[in-house]
Specification:
This protein has 252 residues and is of the alpha/beta class. Helices cover 43% and strands 14% of the residues. It contains eleven helices and ten strands. The strands form three sheets. Strands 7-6-8-10-9 form a five-stranded parallel beta sheet, with helices on both faces. The N and C termini lie far apart (77 Å). The N terminus and C terminus are likely disordered.
Amino acid sequence: MTTQAWTGFETTRRTTAPGPFPAVARADDPIRAVDEAVRAVLAEMFGPARAATPTPPRSAVEPVFADRLLGLKQAQALAPGTTIRIAAGTVVTPLARDLLKKNDVVVRLAGLAEVAATARGEWAFAIESGAGWLSALRRSLLEDAGLWRELDPDVDAAAAWLGAGSGRGALLVTSDGATAVWRGCQRPGVRAAFASEPADVHRATETLGANLIVIDPAAKSIAWIKQLATAFRRAGAPRDPFEAGRGIGGTP
């Protein structure tokens, strides 16, 4: 339709045609007129456009519970009507489940993005070469929405990366964990700890401010190692307790 033809149609339509089309569209601007007409029809069919739901600020995101078990003691500490997010692999005991249901506590499975939203800092991993499933673990961590960066599979490489910035945490998967912890602790700024359970990770991060978690892959599944990694991230950016004025050697 030419501009002249549209102008004639628009003039006639505004004076004779009822309906949802806007009467304020300029007759000499056909593109704007079509756009406003379409918007008006859609508004009548589906209602006014809804504003996008804002992303909640970091402080509004519920923390992620990453222990192996959520038991009755942990359930009793939760206020009625609240929401708790649990990491993949966390088991809720029957007694805890009953109490949570009684108190209307909502339990939701936390995704990796939510884990990341509750933890600041930079994170990296290093996995020694070996069994094929370790390659699968490596791929799985790399696919975790860019949450991890990969380092050379060597404790010295991990120590060098940790020393190059603050608030960094590294995960080292190696069958020689004892040696890795010892060597790591020889390097300035590295606070290494061995972990087999999420509780080990929590103790190491809370009391030592551990920034290098060493895991022996023997008898552990990919899901379980990732559970340990989740617990590590949940603790937040590692801090030296001596410098932070908390924990051992610090002033509360």
